[in-house]
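Subject: for your reference before the review

Hello V.,

The reviewers asked for a structural picture of the protein, and I figured it would be easier to keep everything in one thread rather than splitting it across files. Below is the amino acid sequence we used in the manuscript, unchanged from the supplementary table.
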Amino acid sequence: GKQFIEVSQSSFQIFYNFIFWEYICTLAGTRPFENPQHNLSKKVLVSDLLRPGNYLFQKYIALCQNLSFSGVFEDFISKSNKTFEEIYNLVAEHLESEENDKYQHIKRTLERCKKENKLPKWNIFFPLLKTSFYINKQFSWIFIDLYFYENFKNALHFLSIKKEDWKKVEDFCKNYN
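And here is what came back from the structure prediction:
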């Protein structure tokens, strides 16, 4: 017989697994690549996100839409019992860069991202993720949720979903919970 291993997944993993299952099997049918009629149009995606009983989408969107980089980062600092400078040093240790002064580079980048409330690019975000994993695994999952949600929102523009339409979806999900 087969052995099954129970694995805990973060909310973004559950969400993306659900997306793949939903769109490949349900919307596209049993043979998804033979029927071009079931494409991921704006109408199909938005109606599926807002379908009654589709609680997983709504729960994930409601959870992630309230995350901000500056809020998560400052909460991480306070819960880790470390100073900003200590965190910058730890992140700099994980930075794979030829730059001589990694600490200053990390500090400038993260301070700017915190001030502008936007995610750093992957070359800085990944060392931050590694640092948070070693200090507090819970925050590494929150950072991953934030990162994937931001990418998911950006990817929706390729499906012709306007920012205003996505805002309506987020508002619906916030009120749904």
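For the response letter, the relevant points are probably these. Residues 137-156 form the longest helix (20 residues). The CA atoms of residues 25 and 32 lie 7 Å apart.

Happy to draft the paragraph if you're swamped.

O.
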